[in-house]
TrEMBL record:
Residues 147-225 form the MgtC-like C-terminal domain. Its main location: membrane. It comes from Paraburkholderia caballeronis. One of its GO terms (cellular component) is plasma membrane. This is Protein MgtC. Belongs to the MgtC/SapB family. Pfam families: MgtC (PF02308), MgtC_SapB_C (PF21770). Gene3D superfamilies: 3.30.70.260.
Length: 235
């Protein structure tokens, strides 16, 4: 019995090392030690269920607690940087490593090895596939870019311009994010109305048409728009 439990822990350790090496080579937030500890710890918790003699029900219950605990651990490696989310792939790898550890702890070596292989294939082979897809032309990619449309008009026509902007957003349609107004200190009786929206880069001509229509308004003195750079989505 002791040898069998030790074999389960050793299997979890080996699977954790295999997954962790790939993460460590790529210098991810959760590397060799973290992944190995997660897999080994999950195996130890399931082994506890076996030792207490609660049978399948005990192992299943402990496995559920392991999943919840790893969920909190995975949340710790997810970070927000300049509006983008980083670390989701690492968190998913942690989650899968815990599943591999649970399988080892329950004595299911075949599925554990298969799970390890799937994780490694996903983080290596599918990485290249995703890079190939990301290299496709922008018109075929599922990208979103943030745009800012700025209109300077007379103060008394602010409500009219805001109404025109709002109607244009919903009739095009475009993804309307916000609409703000501010007085211009260097231009008395002038107001700057700024609309923030998100759309696919291929729909940029719609924004240009909207700007052209607004420029024809008598109360409008200037119309400008800017676009943020599209960044490659991190894992």
């Amino acid at each position: 019995m002791t040898f069998d439990l030790a074999l389960r822990l050793a299997a979890a350790f080996a699977c954790g090392v295999a997954i962790g090496l790939e993460r460590q080579i790529r210098q991810r937030t959760a590397g060799l030690r973290t992944i190995t500890l997660v897999a080994s710890g999950a195996s130890l918790f399931v082994t506890l269920g076996v030792l207490t003699g609660n049978g399948t029900a005990g192992v299943t219950q402990i496995s559920a607690y392991v999943v919840s605990g790893v969920g909190f651990l995975g949340g710790g490696v997810i970070m927000r940087d300049k509006g983008s989310i980083q670390g989701i792939n690492t968190a998913a790898t942690l989650w899968c490593s815990a599943a591999v550890g649970v399988l080892c702890g329950a004595g299911h070596y075949g599925p554990a090895v298969a799970g390890t292989a799937i994780v490694l294939l996903t983080n290596t082979v599918l990485r290249e596939v995703s890079r190939f897809i990301n290299a496709t032309p922008v018109s075929n990619a599922d990208l979103v870019r943030e745009y800012m449309l700025t209109v300077v008009c007379r103060e008394e026509d602010e409500i009219h311009i805001r109404t025109v902007l709002t109607n244009s957003m919903y009739s095009t349609p475009l993804s309307f994010q916000s609409l703000t107004s501010e007085d211009l200190a260097d231009r008395p009786q002038q107001v700057r109305v700024t609309a923030t929206l998100k759309l696919h880069p291929k729909d940029q001509p719609k924004l240009e048409q909207m700007a052209s229509r607004l420029a024809m308004e008598k109360s409008v003195s200037s119309v400008t728009w800017t676009a943020a750079e599209v960044e490659a989505a991190p894992e």
